[in-house]
Amino acid sequence: MDRYEQVTELARRRGIMWPAFELYGGAAGFYDYGPLGALLKRKIEDTWRRFFVIGEGFAEIEAPTIGVEGIFAASGHLSGFSDPLTECQECKEVYRADHLIKHIVEVPDALSNEEIGRIIHENDIFCPECGGELSEIYEFNLMFKTTIGPGSTHPGYLRPETAQGMFINFPRLLRYFRDALPFGAVQIGKSYRNEISPRQGVIRLREFTQAEAEVFIDPRDKTHPRFPEVSDLTLRLYSQEAQERGVIDEMTLEDAVKRGIIAHQMLAYYVARTYQFLMAVGVAPERMRFRQHKADEMAHYAADCWDAEVLLERLGWIEIVGIADRTDYDLKSHMTHSQAKLTVFVPYAEPKLRQRLVVKPDMKALGPRFKGKAKAVAEALKSLDEEGLKGDVICVVVEGETVTIERDLVSFEVVEEAIRGEEVIPHVIEPSFGIDRIIYTVLDHSYSQEEVDGESRAVLRFIPAMAPLQVAVLPLMDRPELAQPAEALLQAFRREGIMAEYDTSGSIGRRYRRNDEVGTPFCVTIDYETIEEATVTIRDRDSMGQVRVPKESVVEIVSALVKGEVEFLDAGRPEEST
After folding, report:
1. Which residue range(s) make up the domain with 551?
2. What is the count of structural domains for the chain?
3. 502 class by beta-carbon count within 10 Å (0-12 exposed, 13-18 middle, 19+ buried)
4. pTM: predicted TM-score of the whole model, two decimal places
5. pLDDT digits (tens, 9 = 90+) for 70-120
6. CA distances from 217 to 265, 299, 326, 473 (A)
């Protein structure tokens, strides 16, 4: 088995994730998280909240997962959210056409259907299943459609992303943040895409979890006040230019911004925070890079876009996060479709003085003359510039008719006024995280298979704080005199908020191996010395070393170990591992 199969098999066997609907034959693109997987997922989501809700001060909202049709007309999903399909004319298997040429073109999703079809034809590509001829390429919209209420007059769609919930709530969010930019809103929740042929486990799902932040900023200022905190961070950047050379560059974010590789500080800052989050949950830095979208794959509305990509043994480089400057595309589009005002009044640091022409028609004279048209005539006069107000007679066009007004019926003056700010449509910086892909990456990057004393040992080397189970309480034997203090210790761990498991099944060595396999960082063994000397043994997953510590101190010590406040060998006196 390769690494993918080993990780997937372990995840199924140990209750991390299972294919959904197995009782009824299953359906591709859906997975259940088992008891350990659900715990791991929540820890990753809560870590994300710690970075972006607590750390950045963003506001979390929760919007419906079903949206009305108008939302997706404005967002472009109705017209442009589709994939190119081709169908085998023999076995009728359906394929995503651009995936059939990935070994020929590095970024095939930037090609038109005609270009993909030409490459398939020129390279003699046939059905991977039976070798049959492939059909012409056609588009397939990936949204799940439904109806809201009885009948079919109110179509709705399962949301393909969480972002639109933040955009359509912009006016309320603006008021929540006291009408001041910048501010950020986030959502963690389910999204749905009717993927054509999801065959890569949780890498490509039809129902998946996204964690997205929409950061609304002043389009005239894309610096970030906290950029100095991350400017010296060195990252592996695969820019457009580096992709031409086929080499990943390592440079500081400050250099990347100064050289124009990353468009501006605001985008670079969220690239940095993305990196720090991925490190915090257990993604291996040497198997991570940030790839810039090429010019021909960059969305037409994006000023710049970078993907956090990870290297997986079978699947190669896979995107798990996208960080984009979406400019004002989304708010502008929703303004057009909804006719709502989605702008922000941004005050100037100092008021700006401006000269303005003020035109004053003599309404006492114009009213009786023009009657119902008098107001329209006055507005037409007010729209004239100084040149148009010269001469003895002034001409304006009202309702298609030219009207003349004597000069002495109109006065004007140039006044100076202080302009205190202007209305702007905010730009949006969007870091978008695929939680399910991140979970699989953490499993893959944490997994190791090694030989110990002639036996195979599978280990998930989770960061202790991220492990689904943080400590296993193991009585040496299943006897009442050992079980009683072990169960008391289990409850003490749980009261402290430490996720603890109790296990008496099998030999102590077998129980250690079971806990290594699910990533439990520490095991606490209760034996007869516990009764005689009031001490217990803490075993470390990674080194398999052991230390003996006082029973009354073990909860505090394990808590410090899980939080990374102490090193394992500092927890007590090292002893020989078993």
Report:
1. 469-575
2. 4
3. middle
4. 0.86
5. 999 999 998 878 889 999 999 988 888 998 998 898 778 778 899 999 999
6. 12, 19, 11, 50
